[in-house]
Amino acid sequence: MSFFLESFLAACRLAWSLDPELLTIVRVSLSVSCLATVFAALVGIPAGFAIAHGRLPGKRIIITLLNTLLALPTVVIGLFVYVFISRRGIFGPLDLLYTQQAMIIGQFILIVPLIAALTIAAISRVDERYRKTAKTLGANAWQTGLVVLREGRFGIAAAVISAFGRVISEIGISMMLGGNIKGFTRTMTTAMALEYDKGSFTLAVALGLVLMAISLGINVLFNLIQGRSSR
Amino acid sequence: MILYALDKVQQRCNGRVVLDIDHLEIEGGRIHALLGPNGAGKTTLLNILGFLETPVSGTMLFNGRAVEPVPKRLLHLRRQVVLVDQHPIMFSTTVASNIEFGLKIRKIGKSTRQRMVDEVLATVGLSRYKTARAHELSGGETQRLALARALVLEPEVLLCDEPTASVDTENQAIIISLLQQINTERGTTIIFTTHDRLQAASLAQHTLMLENGRLTTTAYENSYTCTFHRNGSSQVRGILQGITEFFLPAPPPGWPPIRTGRMHIAPEQITLERHELQPRTGSTMTGTIILLMTEGEKIRVVVNVGVLMVVLIDQARYAELRPVIGETICLRFEADAISFLQE
After folding, report:
1. Run of H or E including A177
2. DSSP result, B210-255
3. For a FRET experiment, which of A122, A134, B53, B252 has its CA 20 to 30 Å from that of A227?
4. What was the pLDDT predicted at B233?
5. Which residue of A has its CA nearest to B80?
6. How far is the CA of A109 from the CAs of A159, A175, B26, B94, in angstroms?
7. Residues 50..109 of B with a Cβ closer than 8 Å to A: which?
8. By the 8 A CB rule, do B153 and B169 touch?
9. Interface probe, candidates B101, B133, B142, B154, chain A, greatest A C-beta count within 10 A
10. Three-state DSSP class for B84?
11. What is the per-residue pLDDT for B216?
């Protein structure tokens, strides 16, 4: 117990002193996860909206497929992307393996179904009367769609926040596609795994604290958005 | 001027016919009431008149031109007709932004928009809520805001689905007077649905009645669930709504031993008598008069016989009988006054 307490106090001191190595790891984690979330949102939100709002054939099958993809393990995605971007893969010449771009691609694949599925849920929850009201007030199909999107905005924001929470805490993709290169592709989760392997818990616990602080921040934001949505 | 002309219009929902209009013409510039019980097809008809639903068959003319189910054409028509829902929903913005929505779509300039919003808010008496969140308004205020949101667009036709059904008496009076004002001042055609005959009679210049998706002249009133039991060969005992018992002394030939269903007793085929006279043909019921009102050339008498029974008598009979509210009176009708309704 004292060992854990000592590690915890040392980790607090490390975090408080803004250790450069710690900051670099946090910066890499945040930039990779933020970019992956932004790109995934740009694809997932329109896709989810089109599926929920439009009259697509096979809509139920698409939704079932998306829900299945939510359970996809990160190592499977890592392996899948690895096949394409490794030296022998079709995108091998692009030299993407063990880069932040590779991690972004993997994380993007991980959360696009999540954002799309949660956007579908958010849009489906929008009262049908909004659509009818917009139409009777003279809105065309595009303007009606924008009304529905606006009324579902809190649910969509919650989808993006959830997706960010998913990628910031994942390890499989970062490890397999990033390679855990110090100062370059080392993220909070991969660094924690490495420090654990080394038996050096101080940095691991410090990173754990930062990760939990970020998770807490995300959840506070999520609750704020949900609170506004239910008002 | 005939604004709407519908011919053989039919609408289905999950394979079931919910509206079946043989022919209907609606005159412009007037207030029309669409009267009928729940599930009669009033809202469906309103949605069709508002170009929000396309009927599965039939033809429809608006201002003499055929309504084609082409998105661009329907959009053009929708910008002349606005529907206010029974339970209107407000966009999650301010009161002013809700009203501005339709104006922005019509590309009205900002200063003109502001002026129009102020004017319409003053008309509906909601000026003080201009910057308030629309979701924070009460039910009656929301209904008025929904009217303001529609009126600011100065539509040719205003369709209102049960405009006063879910508001308090004060807001009911405000809404009714607003509808009258708009019709008088702007000549806007108003079509509203209601199941309140009194409201229809007081507000509308013309009343349409719907029953089971069909236009009817007999109104939905005096429609009851009834069970008939045949007693031997000469008499049938009927029980209305499981409450009121009456006898049919001369059942038509082929009348089954037990018959249950919804039936209608034609109000104009019921006669009122001060004392039950025996022996006479027909069925009799006794009840208390609870309402007397004029309806065109007729007098509407509502009698509580356990269920509320409407009787329409002509002026001459009224002058002769002079019924008063609270008086006990006898109702008499023949078997042919009864018709069975389709479920």
Report:
1. none
2. EETTEE-SS-STTEEEEEEEEETTTEEEEEETTTEEEEESSPPTT-
3. A134
4. 63
5. A138
6. 15, 15, 57, 39
7. 50, 52, 71, 75, 78-79, 81-83, 85, 87-89, 91-92, 101-102, 105-106
8. no
9. B101
10. strand
11. 80
Give the DSSP letter of residue B313: E
Nearest Cα residue to B224 out of B212, B248, B210, B240 = B240
Q: Which DSSP helix (H) or strand (E) runs through B12? A: strand B2-13
* DSSP line for B102-163: HHHHTT--HHHHHHHHHHHHHHHT-GGGTTSBGGGS-HHHHHHHHHHHHHTT--SEEEEEST
Query: Residue A13 is encoded by which pair of tokens?
Result: 């001191």
pLDDT given for residue A129 in this prediction: 95
pLDDT of res. A52: 93
ipTM rounded to 2 decimals: 0.78
CA–CA separation, B150 and B32 (whole Å): 18
Can you state the angle between helices A201-230 and A2-16, rounded to 10 degrees? 70
pLDDT of residue A1: 59
Low-confidence ranges of chain B (pLDDT < 50): none
**Identity of residue B101:** F
Q: How many CB atoms lie within 10 A of CB A24?
A: 15
Distance (Å, whole) CA A151 – CA B331: 56
Q: If we measure between CA atoms, which residue out of A4, A27, A78, A17 comes closest to residue A191?
A: A27
> Residue B138: phi, psi to the nearest 5?
-75, 175
CB of A228 within 8 Å of any CB in chain B? no
pTM for this predicted structure? 0.77
